[in-house]
Amino acid sequence: xxxxxxxxxxxxxxxxxxxxxxxxxxxxxxxxxxxxxxxxxxxxxxxxxxxxxxxxxxxxxxxxxxxxxxxxxxxxxxxxxxxxxxxxxxxxxxxxxxxxxxxxxxxxxxxxxxxxxxxxxxxxxxxxxxxxxxxxxxxxxxxxxxxxxxxxxxxxxxxxxxxxxxxxxxxxxxxxxxxxxxxxxxxxxxxxxxxxxxxxxxxxxxxxxxxxxxxxxxxxxxxxxxxxxxxxxxxxx
Amino acid sequence: xxxxxxxxxxxxxxxxxxxxxxxxxxxxxxxxxxxxxxxxxxxxxxxxxxxxxxxxxxxxxxxxxxxxxxxxxxxxxxxxxxxxxxxxxxxxxxxxxxxxxxxxxxxxxxxxxxxxxxxxxxxxxxxxxxxxxxxxxxxxxxxxxxxxxxxxxxxxxxxxxxxxxxxxxxxxxxxxxxxxxxxxxxxxxxxxxxxxxxxxxxxxxxxxxxxxxxxxxxxxxxxxxxxxxxxxxxxxxxxxxxxxxxxxxxxxxxxxxxxxxxxxxxxxxxxxxxxxxxxxxxxxxxxxxxxxxxxxxxxxxxxxxxxxxxxxxxxxxxxxxxxxxxxxxxxxxxxxxxxxxxxxxxxxxxxxxxxxxxxxxxxxxxxxxxxxxxxxxxxxxxxxxxxxxxxxxxxxxxxxxxxxxxxxxxxxxxxxxxxxxxxxxxxxxxxxxxxxxxxxxxxxxxxxxxxxxxxxxxxxxxxxxxxxxxxxxxxxxxxxxxxxxxxxxxxxxxxxxxxxxxxxxxxxxxxxxxxxxxxxxxxxxxxxxxxxxxxxxxxxxxxxxxxxxxxxxxxxxxxxxxxxxxxxxxxxxxxxxxxxxxxxxxxxxxxxxxxxxxxxxxxxxxxxxxxxxxxxxxxxxxxxxxxxxxxxxxxxxxxxxxxxxxxxxxxxxxxxxxxxxxxxxxxxxxxxxxxxxxxxxxxxxxxxxxxxxxxxxxxxxxxxxxxxxxxxxxxxxxxxxxxxxxxxxxxxxxxxxxxxxxxxxxxxxxxxxxxxxxxxxxxxxxxxxxxxxxxxxxxxxxxxxxxxxxxxxxxxxxxxxxxxxxxxxxxxxxxxxxxxxxxxxxxxxxxxxxxxxxxxxxxxxxxxxxxxxxxxxxxxxxxxxxxxxxxxx
Lengths: 237, 873
Description:
CATH class of the largest domain in chain B: Alpha Beta
Number of domains of chain B: 5
Strand order of the largest sheet of chain B: 1-8-2-7-6-3-5-4
EC number (chain A): 3.1.-.-
Oligomer: heterodimer
Helix content of chain B: 25-40%
Radius of gyration of chain B: 29 Å
Order of helices and strands of chain A: HEEEEHHEHEEEEEEEEEEE
Number of helices of chain A: 4
Keywords (chain A): Endonuclease, Hydrolase, Ligase, Nuclease
Pfam families (chain A): Metallophos (PF00149)
Domain Calcineurin-like phosphoesterase (chain A): 41-133
Enzyme class (chain A): hydrolase
């Protein structure tokens, strides 16, 4: 099935409620995190204007990724109507992305931001505030019992929510790769949201030492819902 | 050396002498050449002289001759004769450009030919320089070749693309007189051939008086190759052929010389004492007999159709190799060093047998092979003829071959192929229209060489046979694609790679695009491959060090493995330990029974011709006497219990099996077409409420199963076979299924890379296939959702229709069987259905991924979560 159609359908599936470092959270199969107590929605690695970033280097990827990503984000915002939104970094694929964004896409983004507290966490792709977009740009922010940053800090960090690694997981046997929320109940790494972003298997070396393997779960986004699976039941690749 | 049967039997000259060539007088070889032939006790062969005469008269020539006919020397003779007459260069004169370009499909072949030519050139006393230029040639040597070009340059299609995209191309080729294409039949069938045809068009533009010489094995339509060799331009302009005469609808063709094959090959089908299996592809039953044949001959080449068959046969042979005969393995995924070792040992006649795939199909001269064994059916008559030609390079002695059918249908197929070989039938595939992704790559290359005018480049490109019918509108869209991606939404103008300037030429906007072009030129897009490394045991230090490289393996295959699984590679049973960066780590397994049999099915679909022959044989009980008794009995029981379909009929059988109901059909159109057809029929049956659950396809038959009795549905009119097989299934059904199929995504990836949408390598960051910068599947989904008519989507559809999906064959089939569908409802499975029924369960049925597995795996954590207040709270 077309990945975009699948993403649309997933956005209508039931979310998974759980606790993270004592805070109640909702992992939504659209690929966003919601904190009911704070009325705050968190989304990571939008990679807006990725097509244009490649075009700047001579690879003309379709210029439709930003519109598609924003359309999916709009649906998630409609579902939760949050007062506050945190974008966990790599919101734009490169430093020029925000400034050179075509007017129509800029308009859609501003419409989503209107009436909300909007926080841009700086990422490695977009370390500076997005030019001419508004919102507040921070390196890290604390909301309730949780702290939000782009790159996961090394070692165990209770209450930290990050992105950057684009976690995906694969079931042993014949399963395909699924985007997932990776967590051990103490910290969490969010899936990447942008429509042309790839993924890194949670068993990859980059994830080593971040989770307590005993309790680590990949909350995998399937076709019809979101499924927490122990790391032990996963395979690499 | 016997010459009696070397008379050219079919000569047609359509080219008139061109104005710059001498009059076509009877050609006498220059004295030194005659002496050289005489000195060896030889005489020039008639086709060698014939080719020389035609070339001297200004014609381009196609030489079709079997192996061992002195084809290579014939191809080079015009060049060597011309070079022998050349006056010495005076001191101070500019260095001469390349005189003759030789293009071969394989690096190894170019090197081999260079070596073989050195001797005659030296012995004749010619002062001719020869050099190879391949991917392995050092940078220093390439530079030197540019400054001081050799007279004869032996190279590959990829290198030609780079040479013509260089700024100095006009100088480098300013003296070019001949281009020799070796193994042309194998070059022209792929995208590589399309790129090569475009390269040739550019060479003709640089040197309009250029002549081409094509060397080829026998093909079904030589006229196609004859057109390929010359300009197809009618409208004048550069490279226009002078030989259209008054017949405006005649296409320009090179002259054709055909040399009949030598002695008839001596081919036998193995008549095993053992039971021929119903299905499978391993021919394990015949191993003792194959081993006995190896023992009875000097050197045996064993051909199989896939890499995994090669692995299996090799392992099984060693299992029974009591005399420890030197038996080796050769296939494309093995480490290059290992392959070279096998090749060298082969040339030195140190091996008694080599198990090989198509990597040994082409040209390179092997030692004294006196037997070819084909394990599994050859799938095509021409392929069989070429493979048998690998035995015995002296064309006047018969080649000896044994066919070993792996199952009962293959017995019939082998019989049909054998008859075809005796009849000299050819079933090489027809040439396809030039691919658009290749065209995009070439357009950028031409901008890298120099600014171009669209009108001129269009005229040049349509002079190449594969692009002769390219509409101007499509060409313009490709230029737009190269410039800015060619999207309806115009937002990339400021990043354009090439720009239309005020003087009317398209120019490159930045030199870095030239560098990127050079790094990505070529049409060979490999599946993502990982290197297999052997480690002692699974420790952190061993993993970090890596181990001995055994070769490469498809990432897709590894995805089906879990650590601890064992599989066969390079003749060893390996235990999969895991993936580390771009390596697949393995240890030696303790068991010698691999757990995961890797079989991708037959690589080549059964050719249309052979399929027709098999149907004809099945339909005619009189011909069954040529088949072994086991197979004869099988067919006789089928006749008794069900129906033997006529040569143009499609037999459809329905019967219950356990709790399910089956529908089995026998189109004999090859696996690819059957998979497409199976997918489409399943969709239609679903709509007809027959509740189909899955299907399986072989080269010969398709079996579909479901919950409803399809036989009964047909009987009471709820299901109409005519409607089910109506040709309109190739419309919407095909489109909606194809669009989301992984086959199309795989095709898209190839088109995206070849067309330059995505770079394999980016300057400064060498990427392996695994680490591509962006997921083409995701790009495909976005493009399909937003601009389904984009030129690259069109290119992808065109590719998939002729390639992985074989839609044209499905379409021919549906036309053929209209009003010829024969239905037989049965109480139980028929004899003919047994082979395909046995495949069920061995093959995965392609279908929508379900969440069942995920749900199952999540149970434990869900329960834990429900019982506690969350995993870590």
